[in-house]
Design brief:
Blueprint lengths: L11 E9 L5 H11 L3 E13 L2 E7 L2 H14 L4 E4 L5 H18 L7 E3 L17 H8 L5 E2 L3 H8 L6 H13 L4 E4 L8 E8 L2 E9 L9 H14 L4 H17 L25
Amino acid sequence: MTPRGAGAMAGRVLIVAGSDSGGGAGIQADIKTVTALGGYAMTAVTALTAQNTRGVFSIHDVPADFVAEQMRVVLSDIGADCVKVGMLHRPDVIEAVCDVLEAEAEAAAGGRRVPIVVDPVMVAKGGESLLAPEAMASLKARMIPLAHVLMPNVAEAEALTGLTVRGPDDAGTVARKLAAAGAGAVLLKGGHLPGETVIDILAVDGEIVEVFESPRIDTPHTHGTGCTLASATATGLAQGMAVRDAVARARRYVHEAILTAPGLGHGHGPLNHAHTVTPFGVDG
């Protein structure tokens, strides 16, 4: 008997990111997101964090050579249709990840260059630094030029470019500069800017192709939104969607996940990643 779904391409996503013990962000949010959108998630864990909705309490580094080995064994066997890169933390990990992506990813995608979605994680929701200061140069020199889609928030974009983002006009300028640094497409996320409307700007090949707008949701339960949006976009790309369509679906998914957040914890709570499967808390 042939297993149901055998031979179907769900969209294989290799996630290279840190672990969140609270389950709201990082690898845990990534796996939930890819699965909820019908993809197949694989992982290379770059760091372990002790965190909850109130913050990050400590970080335990994973050796760079072991991060690379996780990637290689997955890519050489299962393959990937997209790679999502999140928290890397240290320059040696960034270098190791880039080395594997340059050497292995094309072969893993059957001879074509596998798209890479980069979420340049720098600071946790509670304000804790997740990127060592000495890692910034490696991130800009090695990782950004590999990005098929780069997805920084305002603070990350400012750190990467040295420019200030005060509104949509500034955001467009910064998105173009990041694209000029080598990223194929840039989604500059505007959730940190003031206003009742959240504006995200998508630039492809240096040209702004779409300005996404959605009403701001007044809630503290937004932990992991960046990880979730990036993984949702990566899943769309892995399933053959164009960048604009993958981003649009990802934004709809995240919006609903925030609206239906379960309200867990005493700080920045997690999203409802499972809203495509079943309402949170409903049995059966």
